[in-house]
């Protein structure tokens, strides 16, 4: 019998499934709002087992964010593979609007809602989430910079400003989704946002 089992870990404990349940708790309540009791109850383990398997609450949260990025944010990585910059942006924002309003998940975005409230950790969690979002933005900016180099975006396009614009739209939609704004309304916002995306002269490609 392992030490973790002695501390109360259930037989047949599935650490990945438990982590998925922690993701939902953090998503619904944010980092500060998610109590240890909320987490252990949802995960089906006691506190010593949680500490043994995942470390402290902050480490559990970071692992939950990594899990969220891998599973729930897979669409963002897939969008980067689209053949044109316009399609990259269109696919990302459309998939984002759908993801923010999934029936089987809390509405909104874990990386936004997780750190909205001011916490007692000296800003560590908020800083971690901000760095995570900026990493995603950097990947988008790199893809848009390539599009400028290849002539897919008009010369003079600022990929950093365009990437930041796209992220502002997606993050704004996340806040509105959490407040109850529906999927159709989010897609209407995407329609307006896409009208501002530059395209090379003569580009009439219809996004897939």
Automatic annotation (TrEMBL):
Assigned keywords, A-Z: DNA-binding, Transcription, Transcription regulation
DNA-binding region: 35-54
Superkingdom of source: Bacteria
PROSITE patterns in the record: HTH_TETR_2 (PS50977)
Coiled coil: none
SUPFAM superfamilies: Homeodomain-like, Tetracyclin repressor-like, C-terminal domain
Transcription found in the keyword field: yes
UniProt keyword Transcription, yes or no: yes
Domain HTH tetR-type: 12-72
Molecular function in Gene Ontology: DNA binding
Protein known as: DNA-binding transcriptional regulator, AcrR family
Organism: Actinoplanes philippinensis
């Amino acid at each position: 019998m392992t030490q973790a089992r002695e501390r109360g870990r259930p037989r047949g404990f599935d650490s990945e499934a438990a982590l998925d349940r922690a993701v939902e708790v953090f998503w619904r309540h944010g980092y500060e709002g998610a109590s240890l009791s909320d987490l252990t109850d949802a995960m089906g383990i006691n506190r010593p087992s949680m500490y043994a398997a995942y470390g402290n609450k902050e480490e559990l949260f970071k692992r939950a964010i990594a899990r969220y990025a891998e599973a729930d944010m897979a669409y963002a990585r897939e969008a980067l593979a689209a053949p044109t910059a316009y399609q990259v942006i269109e696919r990302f924002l459309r998939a984002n609007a759908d993801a923010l309003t999934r029936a089987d998940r809390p509405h909104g975005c874990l990386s936004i809602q997780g750190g909205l409230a001011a916490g007692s950790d000296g800003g560590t969690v908020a800083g971690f989430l901000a760095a995570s979002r900026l990493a995603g933005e950097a990947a988008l900016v790199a893809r848009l910079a390539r599009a400028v180099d290849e002539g897919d975006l008009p010369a003079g396009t600022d990929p950093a400003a365009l990437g930041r614009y796209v992220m502002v739209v997606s993050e704004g939609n996340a806040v509105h989704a959490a407040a109850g704004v529906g999927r159709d309304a989010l897609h209407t916002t995407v329609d307006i946002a896409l009208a501002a995306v530059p395209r090379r002269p003569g580009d009439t490609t219809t996004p897939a």
